[in-house]
Amino acid sequence: MEPITVLSDGSRGIDYDNMIELLNEWITDEQRESAMKREKNVNNEEGEEWGKAHYCIVDYQDAGQAVSAANAIRAFMPQIPLLVITDFQSLIRKRHLQLITGTGLIKMILWHEKEPDSLIVEIQRWLHSFAYKTKTAQPSTQSMRR
Fold first, then answer.
1. What's the predicted TM-score (pTM) here?
2. How confident is the prediction along the chain (146 residues), in pLDDT tens digits per residue?
3. What gap in Å lies between CA 61 and CA 12, rounded to an integer?
4. Nearest CA to 57 among 46, 70, 41?
5. Residue 37: its pLDDT value, please?
6. How open is the CA angle 38-44-50, to the nearest 5 degrees?
7. CA 126 to CA 118: how far, in whole Å?
8. What is the C-alpha separation between 93 and 22, in angstroms, rounded?
9. Do 84 and 106 contact (CB within 8 A), yes or no?
10. Is residue 36 within 8 Å of 88, Cβ to Cβ?
11. How far apart are CA 146 and CA 140, in angstroms?
């Protein structure tokens, strides 16, 4: 499995192929920076190794399909972090996230069709929250258990 997996119905028309390529390059750059910081003996608590990490983006217009897809991947990888994409027309709400099984972190991001670049920035922030854990900053994710 690639570092980032996308489960999507394609209804939003998001160009995940190019986006994932950019994110994979970003992950590689982050991994390189993290390795250099460790060499310089910089305090990097719980530094994660990006090469071993896996993330999943769930992008379905229908809430039931989004929950089903998320639960399908969580059946095999219960701790995988999920990023659920929603929009103003979609009926996916926070209450649907409670139906997703597993112990991994979940975050929901609002897709703005007129601002497609904001999605990649939000995804980078999400990935960044896993790379660097600090005592003062908390990642903008929720841990949902079932």
1. 0.71
2. 568 889 999 999 999 988 888 887 777 666 555 544 544 444 444 334 333 447 899 999 999 999 999 999 999 889 999 999 988 777 788 888 889 999 999 999 988 888 988 888 888 888 887 765 543 333 334 433 44
3. 8
4. 70
5. 53
6. 75
7. 12
8. 28
9. yes
10. no
11. 20
Q: Quick one: tokens of 72?
A: 């399908």
SS3 string, the chain, reads CCCEEEEECCCCCCCHHHHHHHHHHHHHHHHHHHHHHHHCCCCCCCCCCHHHCCEEEEECCCHHHHHHHHHHHHHHCCCCCEEEEECCCCCCCHHHHCCCCCCCEEEEEECCCCCHHHHHHHHHHHHHHHHCCCCCCCCCCEECCC
Considering all CA atoms of the chain, what is the largest pairwise distance in Å, rounded to the nearest integer? 48
Amino acid at 90: S
Token couple for 48: 């994660």
